[in-house]
From TrEMBL:
One of its GO terms (molecular function) is ATP binding. Signal peptide: none annotated. Residues 12-251 form the ABC transporter domain. It comes from Promicromonospora umidemergens. Keywords: ATP-binding, Nucleotide-binding. It holds the Pfam family ABC_tran. PROSITE patterns: ABC_TRANSPORTER_2. The lineage of its organism: Bacteria, Bacillati, Actinomycetota, Actinomycetes, Micrococcales. InterPro entries: AAA+_ATPase, ABC_transporter-like_ATP-bd, P-loop_NTPase. This is ABC transporter ATP-binding protein.
Length: 271
Protein backbone atom coordinates (compact mmCIF):
# COMPACT_ATOMS: atom_id res chain seq x y z
CA UNK A 1 0.00 0.00 0.00
CA UNK A 2 1.81 3.05 -1.24
CA UNK A 3 -0.87 5.67 -1.80
CA UNK A 4 -0.10 8.76 -3.80
CA UNK A 5 -2.15 11.88 -4.09
CA UNK A 6 -5.78 10.81 -4.26
CA UNK A 7 -7.74 13.63 -5.84
CA UNK A 8 -11.54 13.51 -5.53
CA UNK A 9 -13.35 11.74 -8.34
CA UNK A 10 -14.47 13.89 -11.23
CA UNK A 11 -17.49 16.00 -10.28
CA UNK A 12 -17.08 15.45 -6.51
CA UNK A 13 -17.05 18.69 -4.55
CA UNK A 14 -16.16 18.50 -0.86
CA UNK A 15 -18.73 20.21 1.36
CA UNK A 16 -18.92 21.38 4.94
CA UNK A 17 -20.73 19.21 7.48
CA UNK A 18 -21.79 20.79 10.75
CA UNK A 19 -24.02 20.29 13.76
CA UNK A 20 -25.71 22.70 16.13
CA UNK A 21 -27.08 21.97 19.59
CA UNK A 22 -26.62 18.21 19.15
CA UNK A 23 -28.06 16.37 22.15
CA UNK A 24 -28.44 12.58 22.30
CA UNK A 25 -30.00 10.71 25.21
CA UNK A 26 -30.52 7.01 25.81
CA UNK A 27 -33.01 5.33 28.09
CA UNK A 28 -31.61 4.36 31.45
CA UNK A 29 -28.86 6.96 31.46
CA UNK A 30 -29.34 10.21 33.38
CA UNK A 31 -26.74 12.32 31.59
CA UNK A 32 -26.96 12.72 27.81
CA UNK A 33 -24.29 11.06 25.67
CA UNK A 34 -24.02 14.31 23.72
CA UNK A 35 -24.99 17.54 25.45
CA UNK A 36 -25.57 20.60 23.25
CA UNK A 37 -22.57 19.85 21.03
CA UNK A 38 -21.62 22.21 18.23
CA UNK A 39 -19.46 20.87 15.43
CA UNK A 40 -18.02 22.06 12.14
CA UNK A 41 -15.88 20.17 9.64
CA UNK A 42 -14.83 22.60 6.89
CA UNK A 43 -14.94 21.45 3.29
CA UNK A 44 -11.79 19.66 2.16
CA UNK A 45 -10.21 19.41 5.63
CA UNK A 46 -9.42 16.43 7.86
CA UNK A 47 -11.17 16.96 11.19
CA UNK A 48 -10.29 14.60 14.02
CA UNK A 49 -12.57 13.64 16.91
CA UNK A 50 -10.61 12.85 20.04
CA UNK A 51 -11.47 12.33 23.68
CA UNK A 52 -11.47 9.68 26.41
CA UNK A 53 -13.54 6.51 26.12
CA UNK A 54 -17.21 7.30 26.66
CA UNK A 55 -16.88 10.95 25.72
CA UNK A 56 -19.33 10.64 22.80
CA UNK A 57 -17.03 10.44 19.76
CA UNK A 58 -18.73 7.52 17.99
CA UNK A 59 -22.18 8.86 18.89
CA UNK A 60 -21.30 12.20 17.33
CA UNK A 61 -20.05 10.46 14.18
CA UNK A 62 -23.28 8.44 13.91
CA UNK A 63 -25.30 11.60 14.46
CA UNK A 64 -23.46 13.32 11.62
CA UNK A 65 -24.14 10.26 9.45
CA UNK A 66 -27.86 10.43 10.16
CA UNK A 67 -28.07 7.01 11.81
CA UNK A 68 -28.64 8.60 15.25
CA UNK A 69 -31.18 11.39 15.62
CA UNK A 70 -30.37 14.31 17.93
CA UNK A 71 -33.13 15.59 20.21
CA UNK A 72 -32.75 18.49 19.93
CA UNK A 73 -30.17 19.60 17.37
CA UNK A 74 -29.65 19.74 13.64
CA UNK A 75 -26.96 18.43 11.28
CA UNK A 76 -26.31 20.47 8.15
CA UNK A 77 -24.63 19.42 4.94
CA UNK A 78 -23.39 22.35 2.90
CA UNK A 79 -25.66 24.55 4.99
CA UNK A 80 -28.80 22.46 4.36
CA UNK A 81 -30.51 20.40 7.09
CA UNK A 82 -29.37 16.83 6.51
CA UNK A 83 -32.75 15.31 7.30
CA UNK A 84 -34.44 17.36 4.58
CA UNK A 85 -32.21 16.09 1.78
CA UNK A 86 -33.45 13.27 -0.48
CA UNK A 87 -32.31 9.86 0.75
CA UNK A 88 -30.41 9.15 -2.48
CA UNK A 89 -28.51 12.43 -2.22
CA UNK A 90 -27.54 11.70 1.37
CA UNK A 91 -26.37 8.20 0.45
CA UNK A 92 -24.25 9.53 -2.40
CA UNK A 93 -22.76 12.42 -0.48
CA UNK A 94 -21.75 10.84 2.85
CA UNK A 95 -19.80 7.58 3.25
CA UNK A 96 -19.28 5.91 6.62
CA UNK A 97 -16.57 3.48 7.65
CA UNK A 98 -17.54 1.74 10.88
CA UNK A 99 -15.14 0.58 13.56
CA UNK A 100 -16.13 -3.07 13.27
CA UNK A 101 -17.30 -5.19 10.34
CA UNK A 102 -19.24 -8.41 9.97
CA UNK A 103 -16.82 -11.33 10.04
CA UNK A 104 -19.39 -13.94 8.93
CA UNK A 105 -20.01 -12.73 5.40
CA UNK A 106 -18.60 -14.85 2.59
CA UNK A 107 -18.49 -12.11 -0.05
CA UNK A 108 -15.48 -11.60 -2.25
CA UNK A 109 -13.43 -8.42 -1.85
CA UNK A 110 -14.78 -7.11 -5.16
CA UNK A 111 -18.36 -7.55 -3.91
CA UNK A 112 -17.68 -5.70 -0.66
CA UNK A 113 -16.11 -2.74 -2.47
CA UNK A 114 -18.95 -2.71 -5.00
CA UNK A 115 -21.42 -2.03 -2.16
CA UNK A 116 -20.08 1.51 -2.21
CA UNK A 117 -21.55 1.99 -5.68
CA UNK A 118 -25.16 1.15 -4.76
CA UNK A 119 -26.21 4.79 -4.18
CA UNK A 120 -25.13 5.62 -7.74
CA UNK A 121 -27.24 2.94 -9.46
CA UNK A 122 -30.95 2.69 -10.02
CA UNK A 123 -32.86 -0.05 -8.26
CA UNK A 124 -31.88 -3.44 -9.71
CA UNK A 125 -29.61 -1.74 -12.26
CA UNK A 126 -26.43 -3.73 -13.06
CA UNK A 127 -22.98 -2.28 -12.44
CA UNK A 128 -21.53 -0.37 -15.38
CA UNK A 129 -18.04 0.61 -16.53
CA UNK A 130 -18.03 3.70 -14.30
CA UNK A 131 -18.77 1.54 -11.25
CA UNK A 132 -16.01 -0.90 -12.14
CA UNK A 133 -13.53 1.93 -12.63
CA UNK A 134 -14.40 3.51 -9.27
CA UNK A 135 -13.93 0.17 -7.47
CA UNK A 136 -10.62 -0.54 -9.20
CA UNK A 137 -9.35 2.93 -8.35
CA UNK A 138 -10.36 2.56 -4.71
CA UNK A 139 -8.62 -0.80 -4.33
CA UNK A 140 -5.51 0.64 -5.93
CA UNK A 141 -5.53 3.57 -3.50
CA UNK A 142 -5.53 1.25 -0.48
CA UNK A 143 -2.95 -1.07 -1.99
CA UNK A 144 -5.21 -4.09 -2.55
CA UNK A 145 -5.26 -4.43 -6.32
CA UNK A 146 -5.23 -8.15 -7.16
CA UNK A 147 -7.28 -9.21 -4.12
CA UNK A 148 -10.67 -8.90 -5.83
CA UNK A 149 -11.52 -12.61 -5.67
CA UNK A 150 -10.31 -13.25 -2.13
CA UNK A 151 -13.07 -14.16 0.32
CA UNK A 152 -13.84 -11.85 3.22
CA UNK A 153 -13.38 -14.62 5.78
CA UNK A 154 -9.80 -15.19 4.67
CA UNK A 155 -8.71 -11.60 5.26
CA UNK A 156 -6.80 -10.39 8.29
CA UNK A 157 -8.27 -7.65 10.46
CA UNK A 158 -6.01 -5.09 8.84
CA UNK A 159 -6.96 -6.20 5.34
CA UNK A 160 -10.64 -5.92 6.22
CA UNK A 161 -10.10 -2.36 7.42
CA UNK A 162 -8.45 -1.47 4.11
CA UNK A 163 -11.24 -3.11 2.10
CA UNK A 164 -13.79 -1.11 4.09
CA UNK A 165 -11.82 2.03 3.30
CA UNK A 166 -11.90 1.06 -0.39
CA UNK A 167 -15.67 0.59 -0.21
CA UNK A 168 -16.07 4.10 1.23
CA UNK A 169 -13.76 5.59 -1.41
CA UNK A 170 -15.56 3.74 -4.22
CA UNK A 171 -18.72 5.55 -3.19
CA UNK A 172 -17.04 8.77 -4.36
CA UNK A 173 -18.58 10.81 -1.54
CA UNK A 174 -18.07 14.45 -0.68
CA UNK A 175 -17.80 13.59 3.03
CA UNK A 176 -16.02 10.63 4.63
CA UNK A 177 -16.90 9.68 8.22
CA UNK A 178 -14.56 7.13 9.79
CA UNK A 179 -14.77 5.54 13.24
CA UNK A 180 -11.28 4.52 14.38
CA UNK A 181 -10.12 3.37 10.92
CA UNK A 182 -6.64 2.50 12.20
CA UNK A 183 -7.98 -0.36 14.35
CA UNK A 184 -6.27 -3.66 13.44
CA UNK A 185 -3.73 -1.91 11.21
CA UNK A 186 0.00 -2.20 11.83
CA UNK A 187 1.99 1.01 12.21
CA UNK A 188 2.94 1.24 8.54
CA UNK A 189 -0.63 0.87 7.31
CA UNK A 190 -1.95 3.28 9.94
CA UNK A 191 0.25 6.01 8.52
CA UNK A 192 -0.45 5.07 4.92
CA UNK A 193 -4.22 5.08 5.39
CA UNK A 194 -4.25 8.43 7.19
CA UNK A 195 -1.85 9.90 4.65
CA UNK A 196 -4.23 8.77 1.92
CA UNK A 197 -7.22 10.34 3.67
CA UNK A 198 -5.30 13.58 4.04
CA UNK A 199 -4.67 13.76 0.30
CA UNK A 200 -8.17 12.95 -0.98
CA UNK A 201 -9.27 16.59 -0.92
CA UNK A 202 -12.57 15.40 0.56
CA UNK A 203 -14.15 16.48 3.83
CA UNK A 204 -12.94 13.86 6.30
CA UNK A 205 -14.15 13.38 9.88
CA UNK A 206 -12.20 10.69 11.71
CA UNK A 207 -12.36 9.33 15.25
CA UNK A 208 -8.87 8.63 16.56
CA UNK A 209 -7.41 7.37 19.83
CA UNK A 210 -3.76 7.86 18.93
CA UNK A 211 -2.89 11.48 19.74
CA UNK A 212 0.34 11.35 17.72
CA UNK A 213 -1.61 10.33 14.61
CA UNK A 214 -4.17 13.06 15.26
CA UNK A 215 -1.39 15.63 15.59
CA UNK A 216 0.24 14.57 12.36
CA UNK A 217 -2.68 14.09 9.99
CA UNK A 218 -5.58 16.27 11.16
CA UNK A 219 -6.04 19.86 10.04
CA UNK A 220 -8.51 20.48 12.84
CA UNK A 221 -9.54 18.74 16.05
CA UNK A 222 -12.67 18.57 18.13
CA UNK A 223 -12.04 17.41 21.71
CA UNK A 224 -15.01 15.82 23.47
CA UNK A 225 -15.17 15.46 27.22
CA UNK A 226 -18.16 14.02 29.10
CA UNK A 227 -20.44 14.56 26.13
CA UNK A 228 -19.55 18.19 25.54
CA UNK A 229 -17.13 20.05 23.30
CA UNK A 230 -14.07 20.90 25.37
CA UNK A 231 -12.13 22.53 22.53
CA UNK A 232 -12.31 22.87 18.75
CA UNK A 233 -10.07 24.50 16.17
CA UNK A 234 -6.81 24.07 14.32
CA UNK A 235 -4.80 21.13 15.60
CA UNK A 236 -1.86 23.12 16.97
CA UNK A 237 -4.26 25.42 18.83
CA UNK A 238 -6.28 22.61 20.39
CA UNK A 239 -3.75 19.89 21.15
CA UNK A 240 -1.99 21.50 24.10
CA UNK A 241 -0.46 20.19 27.30
CA UNK A 242 -3.30 21.82 29.26
CA UNK A 243 -5.95 20.05 27.18
CA UNK A 244 -4.23 16.69 27.59
CA UNK A 245 -3.93 17.23 31.34
CA UNK A 246 -7.56 18.30 31.79
CA UNK A 247 -9.31 15.92 29.41
CA UNK A 248 -7.05 12.86 29.29
CA UNK A 249 -5.40 13.11 32.71
CA UNK A 250 -1.88 12.82 31.33
CA UNK A 251 1.28 14.88 31.40
CA UNK A 252 2.56 15.49 27.89
CA UNK A 253 5.20 17.38 26.00
CA UNK A 254 3.70 19.06 22.92
CA UNK A 255 6.19 20.67 20.57
CA UNK A 256 6.17 22.01 17.04
CA UNK A 257 9.00 21.39 14.58
CA UNK A 258 8.52 23.20 11.28
CA UNK A 259 5.03 22.09 10.19
CA UNK A 260 4.98 18.99 12.39
CA UNK A 261 3.27 18.83 15.77
CA UNK A 262 4.72 16.22 18.11
CA UNK A 263 3.06 14.78 21.19
CA UNK A 264 4.93 12.75 23.80
CA UNK A 265 2.92 11.43 26.72
CA UNK A 266 5.12 11.43 29.83
CA UNK A 267 2.75 9.75 32.25
CA UNK A 268 -0.49 10.22 34.15
CA UNK A 269 -1.14 13.37 36.13
CA UNK A 270 -0.95 11.37 39.35
CA UNK A 271 2.55 9.99 38.65
Amino acid sequence: MSPGTAAPARGVRPVEISGQGLTVRVRGRTAPILDDVGFTAPAGCVTGLIGPNGSGKSTLLHTLAGSTSPQPGVVRLDGRPFGELPRRERARTVAVMEQNSDSDTDLAVADVVALGRLPHRGRMAPAGPQDAAACARALDLVGLTGTEQRRWRTLSGGERQRVQAARALAQEPAVLLLDEPTNHLDVQHQHELLSLLATTGLTVVVVLHDLALAARYCDRLVVLHEGRTHAAGRTHEVLTADTLRTVFGVRADVSRHADTLRVEVLGSVGD
